[in-house]
TrEMBL record:
<keyword id="KW-0378">Hydrolase</keyword>
<dbReference type="GO" id="GO:0004477">
    <property type="term" value="F:methenyltetrahydrofolate cyclohydrolase activity"/>
</dbReference>
<keyword id="KW-0554">One-carbon metabolism</keyword>
<feature type="binding site">
    <location>
        <begin position="167"/>
        <end position="169"/>
    </location>
    <ligand>
        <name>NADP(+)</name>
    </ligand>
</feature>
<dbReference type="Pfam" id="PF00763">
    <property type="entry name" value="THF_DHG_CYH"/>
</dbReference>
<comment type="pathway">
    <text>One-carbon metabolism; tetrahydrofolate interconversion.</text>
</comment>
<dbReference type="GO" id="GO:0004488">
    <property type="term" value="F:methylenetetrahydrofolate dehydrogenase (NADP+) activity"/>
</dbReference>
<keyword id="KW-0658">Purine biosynthesis</keyword>
<dbReference type="InterPro" id="IPR020631">
    <property type="entry name" value="THF_DH/CycHdrlase_NAD-bd_dom"/>
</dbReference>
<keyword id="KW-0368">Histidine biosynthesis</keyword>
<protein>
    <recommendedName>
        <fullName>Bifunctional protein FolD</fullName>
        <ecNumber>1.5.1.5</ecNumber>
        <ecNumber>3.5.4.9</ecNumber>
    </recommendedName>
</protein>
<keyword id="KW-0511">Multifunctional enzyme</keyword>
<keyword id="KW-0486">Methionine biosynthesis</keyword>
<dbReference type="InterPro" id="IPR046346">
    <property type="entry name" value="Aminoacid_DH-like_N_sf"/>
</dbReference>
<comment type="subunit">
    <text>Homodimer.</text>
</comment>
<keyword id="KW-0560">Oxidoreductase</keyword>
<dbReference type="InterPro" id="IPR000672">
    <property type="entry name" value="THF_DH/CycHdrlase"/>
</dbReference>
Length: 283
């Protein structure tokens, strides 16, 4: 597909992924297996509640069981880990997602590490990160995997390209950097301490914005013909990229919303189905 001034439609990519799962879910049903994703929400953050609801709705549309667990914001780290352990031990649960972020008093990393690797469908554990670094992860982090899925769907070359990642979080910036590196891109990781950020972004063939600041990446920073992937989502449906300004110079760009978000959810469902396929216990 021609990437000339192309809007990278995440809804279209997500639909393709979801359609590919229907036959696999039916085959699991013949085996007596109903794929099940358990989502854990701690507290009452409105954005997190929306994300969990969207994931649950997506599961139901495909015939995947969605088990929603909503814990009080006063839940302790120990109590949260106990809930995760119960889900680890439940053979009818194939994937576990702990909605990020959790309240500040909770040790989020400890909670992530409590998730059994076979059920880490969101790719948040350290073992999952290490497997991803070696290109061996069954369940790479969902948003990075979604970014690669969009590039592949639109047949945008990765090998030999210079990718600049703005953001270094352990579930987005770092893993997507490794995934692009494993696909033979030359990767530069930028962050809040990076000097001359506009200059570095101006060298990129592929820009991944994952900084968590609305309209942060400016059109003047990117070079003509760059591919821009906006992984940010801020209040008011605004991404991390100044869309209008960047669109004028980019050869291809993801919108917000309807860009990376829908593909992230579709990837989560794909991982849940794969986890169910790997299971040997029938319901």
């Amino acid at each position: 597909m021609n990437a000339d001034k192309l809007i990278l439609d995440g809804t279209r990519v997500a639909k393709s992924i979801n359609e590919s799962l229907v036959k696999r879910i039916n085959q699991l049903s013949v085996r007596g297996i109903l794929p099940c994703l358990a989502t854990i929400l701690v507290g009452d953050d409105p954005s997190s509640e929306t994300y969990v609801r969207m994931k649950s709705s997506a599961c139901k549309r495909l015939g995947i069981d969605s088990r929603r667990i909503h814990l009080n914001k006063a839940t302790t780290t120990e109590e949260l880990i106990a809930v995760i352990q119960q889900l680890n031990e439940d053979p009818q649960v194939h994937g576990i997602l702990l909605q990020h972020p959790v309240p500040h008093h909770i040790d989020e990393r400890a909670a992530f590490e409590a998730i059994q690797i076979e059920k880490d469908v969101d790719g948040v554990t350290m073992l999952g990160f290490a497997q991803n670094a070696f290109g061996m992860a069954s369940f790479p982090s969902c948003t990075p995997a979604a970014i690669l899925a969009i590039l592949d769907y639109y047949q945008i070359p990765i090998e030999g390209k210079h990718a600049v990642i703005v953001g270094r979080s352990p579930i987005l910036g770092k893993p997507v950097s490794l995934m692009l590196l494993n696909r033979n891109a030359t990767v530069t990781i930028c962050h809040s301490k990076t000097n001359n950020l506009p200059l570095i972004i101006g060298l990129a063939d592929i820009v991944v914005a994952a900084v968590g600041k609305p309209a942060f990446i400016q059109g003047a920073w990117i070079k003509e013909g760059a591919v821009v992937l906006d992984a940010g989502y801020n209040a008011g449906n605004i991404g991390d990229v100044d869309f209008d300004a960047c669109h004028k110079k980019a050869s291809a760009i993801t919108p917000v919303p309807a860009g990376i978000g829908p593909v992230t959810i579709a990837t989560l469902l794909k991982h849940t189905v794969l986890a169910a396929e790997k299971s040997k216990i029938t319901t």
